[in-house]
Amino acid sequence: MIAREWKCRVPDVHSKGFTSYLYETGIKDSSATPGFLGAQIFHRSSDGKVELTLITYWDKLESIEAFAGSDISVARLYPEDAAYQLEPDLSVQHYEVIEHQFMAAHRG
């Protein structure tokens, strides 16, 4: 399994709107691509901005290429990104996932 990591920053005021927009663009498009296995979005606030990290999971590099294009190290951006004052990383990182275990939530 391959993890694809992309980060961006937006002003706090755009955090909720951009997160919804991210679901309608990046998550929707990647999940429609064969070989997509799942995604996670991480959120943290710092100095009036929100940093979002999107990690998508894929079966193989060729599946990522079908989503991202021939240079999979380049971030896939969307036309309306600027409306959210997006500060995107222009490149992405890829990792081989060697462990992926989640424990069921304890409910007491």
UniProtKB/TrEMBL annotation:
SUPFAM superfamilies: Dimeric alpha+beta barrel. This is Antibiotic biosynthesis monooxygenase. InterPro entries: Dimeric_a/b-barrel (IPR011008). It comes from the Bacteria.
